[in-house]
Amino acid sequence: MLSVIYVSVADPLLSFADIQLILASARRNNERDALTGALIYNGNNFMQLLEGPADRVDACLEAIREDTRHGGMVEIRRRTIDRRDFAEWSMLYEPDFEEHADGLARLAANGGLDADDERMLGNFIALGRRRPSAAGPAPLQ
Ligand SMILES: Cc1cc2nc3c(=O)[nH]c(=O)nc-3n(C[C@H](O)[C@H](O)[C@H](O)COP(=O)(O)O)c2cc1C
Predict the structure, then answer these.
(1) Residues in a beta bridge with 8
(2) Distance CA 63, CA 15 (A)
(3) Would residue 137 count as lying in a domain?
(4) From the CA of 115, how far away is ligand 1's center (Å)?
(5) Which of 30, 74, 86, 106 could form a disulfide with 36 if both were Cys (CB 3.0 to 4.6 A apart)?
(6) Ligand 1 pocket by Cβ (under 6 Å)
(7) Residue range(s) defining the domain that contains residue 86
(8) In this structure, what CATH number is given to the domain that contains residue 108?
(9) Of 37-46, 59-68, 81-90, 124-133, where does mean pLDDT reach its minimum?
């Protein structure tokens, strides 16, 4: 399997409703395609981890790259994995990752990882240890 993390620059006009639409189609398609992962949006940048069968991850990234709701996608990590970090999440969404606004903007600008970025990625990936509620998938926020 493949795991890819990218950052991008969101369309400044995106609304709350737009994010809900992105999540709804991501969750629907990812469930169909055996993809899992997480998405962060801080009002300016997206960061997303997508994991699953390599061909499906790349096909999905192609579609996402064409999406006009964001631009400037920069892959910051790509690795082969045996085990998923977000096995239980068709797409976890965490709106409260805002303390990392500067880090995300800088990554989107140059894609290089420093020690702070590695720490931030560690925190991001740790979100995958959360369990979806027994009532079903996390509500759209
Ligand atoms: C930041 C961002 C993340 C996205 N993540 C996914 C995703 O994980 N899976 C997915 O299928 N589509 C994702 N999309 C949406 C795709 O770009 C595309 O709109 C969608 O796959 C089209 O499928 P649909 O016609 O079924 O809605 C994302 C879009 C954006 C802007």
Answers:
(1) 46
(2) 21
(3) no
(4) 30
(5) 86
(6) 22, 25-26, 29-30, 39, 46, 48, 50, 60, 63-64, 67, 69-70, 91
(7) 2-129
(8) 3.30.70.100
(9) 124-133
Backbone angles phi, psi at 41, to 5 degrees: -140, 125
> What is the whole-number distance in angstroms between the Cα of residue 95 and the centre of ligand 1?
17
Confirm whether 23 is domain-assigned.
Answer: yes
Q: Which of 64, 66, 97 to mutate to test the pocket of ligand 1 (most atoms within 8 A of CB)?
A: 64
Task: Read off φ and ψ for residue 76, nearest 5 degrees.
Answer: -110, -15
pLDDT at 138 over 60: no
Best probe residue, ligand 1, of 5, 25, 91 (max atoms within 8 Å of C-beta):
25
64 CA → ligand 1 middle, Å: 5
Average pLDDT of the residues in 22-33: 97
Element (H, E) at 50: strand 45-52
What the block records as the tokens of 34 is 């055996």
Q: Report how many domains make up the chain.
A: 1
